[in-house]
Amino acid sequence: MTDLTEVTQDVETDAGPARVTWRHAGQPRLVLAVSHGAGGGIGARDLQALARVLPGHGVTVALVEQPWRVAGKKLAPAPKTLDLGWRGIWPALAEPGLPVISGGRSAGARVACRTATELGAHAVLALSFPLHPPGRPEKSRAEELLGSGVPTLVVQGGNDPFGKPGEFPEGAYELVEVPHGDHGFAVPKRAEISQEQALEIVTDGVTQWTASLG
């Protein structure tokens, strides 16, 4: 049985107080910890969809709010401060004693990739990985993605200005494309798939991938 009741936990870190919202699976085998991007929160459509669906497949979901977001700031701090906050949150994520998938969307995906090996993450889920700033493909962040050191899944919108699927380099990771999706996986009304179907591509892809992790 899956319990979709949210349980909120405040966590102290060296970057300030963070917050974890748990959606527990009835018989969990994994924890998927996902954080938000630099311009949004855990209300993002993809994070909420994963929190609804994954617990029914044996994956407890932990939606993580970085300290800057909890403090009510509008702009994310430097990458090293984001990493500091994620390190401080990690013991709470590992507390259930299950393998932890380190994940996030956009800037949160970069944090997950940068810290995965150091923290002992079981795998990395990179939602809307910002391969480069919009219009600046020469400013590639592929090294972060390729250096995660653990099994990695990228879920990318087909029309993401931060990097379309075809721009990604070859490497030891899997990629699921959301056709016509932008950086937030929003699809145009004229697209051949609906918004609901776009989110199903996200949740189905992540569900299948987590099943393959054992």
From TrEMBL:
Keywords: Hydrolase
Gene3D superfamilies referenced in this protein's UniProt entry, alphabetically: alpha/beta hydrolase (3.40.50.1820)
Matches recorded under InterPro entries: AB_hydrolase_fold, KANL3/Tex30_Abhydrolase, NSL3/Tex30
Sample GO molecular function, one term: hydrolase activity
Any Pfam family matching the protein: Abhydrolase_11
Residues covered by the KANL3/Tex30 alpha/beta hydrolase-like domain: 31-209
PANTHER family documented for this protein: TESTIS DEVELOPMENT PROTEIN PRTD, TESTIS-EXPRESSED PROTEIN 30
Protein name: Hydrolase
Organism: Streptomyces guryensis
